[in-house]
Amino acid sequence: MVDLDAHFDIHHRADLGFPQSLPDFQRLFPDDAACAAYLEKLRWPDGFVCAKCGTFSAPVRVAKRPGVLRCGNCRHDTGLTAGTVMELSHTPLSVWFWAAYLMTSQTPGVSAIQFQRQLGLKRYETAFQILHKLRAGMVRPNRDRIGGPPSTHVEVDETWIGGRTRGEGRGVHHKVPVACAVEVRHRKPGTAQDKRKDGRYAGRVRLAVVPDRTTKSLCGFVESTGATGTLVVTDDWSAYASLRKRGYDHHAVAECGDPDEAEAFLPITHLVFANLKTWLIGIHHGVSHQHLQAYLNEFVFRFNRRYYPFNAFRSLLAIAGDATSPTYDELSHLIRRMSGIRWRVWLKSLSLSKNMGADANLARTGLCHTRHDRKYPVSVFSTIRAAQKSHCCI
């Protein structure tokens, strides 16, 4: 069954191919000029149209400004990346294309530190910003709501993501609630995986950070993601009780803490949650709550296009070509504020006890290295400077 999200934003055009391997990528995009030509065809499939006067004509090329298209009628200049997630970026287009290819073609995606190493970028912040801007382009504007056909139903559930384990007693604290809605489709009888989960498999998925587990938050999430009249299956949490009044065919399942009941009635949402948590820990080693929604968008984008990852490269550039993204200052504002608090706590802890030795004091603050089971102190200020350079590492 073809995913409706992918069918909507993948352009079936003979003049706009997509790389299906690394040699294909190098052949299609050998330099920035090839990337610029591809982006121009993607943004203006029927030819360049001036944003100011609306004239449909071939643009005038400026030799010294290859990223600028000049209208032949009104002489208005239009930036090739204006209005995209790449706007005002000094990074070459080829780096942006490499990022889009690695994010979409690899099943687990790519972390910022991996991307920095593979492309030889000097600064981690550059890799972090590029990937985060592309994540902003992974949500299609005005995307349709899932569900609707009688042959499918939607499972809805919520889980807790992230949190801290140090400094506040036992357990994990400050977790963030995440809601999930996923279409449940059925395989054709007699196929190879027909008996797995009774022939059920995941269709399109939606994930969102919610402020809490109240009726307003959870039912609001269902209304924003699910089509009215859809059969919705949830657990018996009281916040879902008003879904039937809101126009949904709601069926609540009393799990009573029994994992067999959860596996029988809500297997797909639990599978999505398991894959999500494994991906966040395995690839990104955890994410902060202020950036969690961006990572959820990436997971949803690649999950919904898991059967044709190479086509997703073209889809990502198509959506990102008509989207806005946060600036680096907006991305790192909260991190800088929290990291400033962390450095002050570390420096204060250095003078907690005059009776402690230098090694023990450094070990208390975590500003020492361990090698062959022997701790040795390092320069406090060099460690802080190194940490400040990577304080956006999430």
Descriptive key words:
globular; three-stranded antiparallel sheet; disordered C terminus; 40% helix; Nucleotidyltransferase, domain 5; five-stranded mixed sheet; alpha+beta; 394 residues; disordered N terminus
Q: Could you describe the 3D structure shown?
A:
The protein is of the alpha+beta class. The protein has 3 domains: 4-136, no CATH class; 153-288, Nucleotidyltransferase, domain 5, CATH 3.30.420; 335-389, no CATH class. Helices cover 40% and strands 15% of the residues. The chain has 14 helices and 10 strands. The chain has helices at 4-9, 22-28, 32-43, 93-105, 112-119, 124-136, 215-225, 259-265, 267-282, 292-304, 309-320, 328-349, 358-365, 380-389, and strands at residues 60-62, 65-70, 77-79, 153-161, 176-186, 200-209, 231-235, 249-253, 368-371, 374-377. The strands form 3 sheets. Strands 6-5-4-7-8 form a 5-stranded mixed β-sheet, with helices on both faces. Helix 4 packs across helix 11 (309-320). The chain starts with a helix and ends in a 5-residue tail after the last helix.
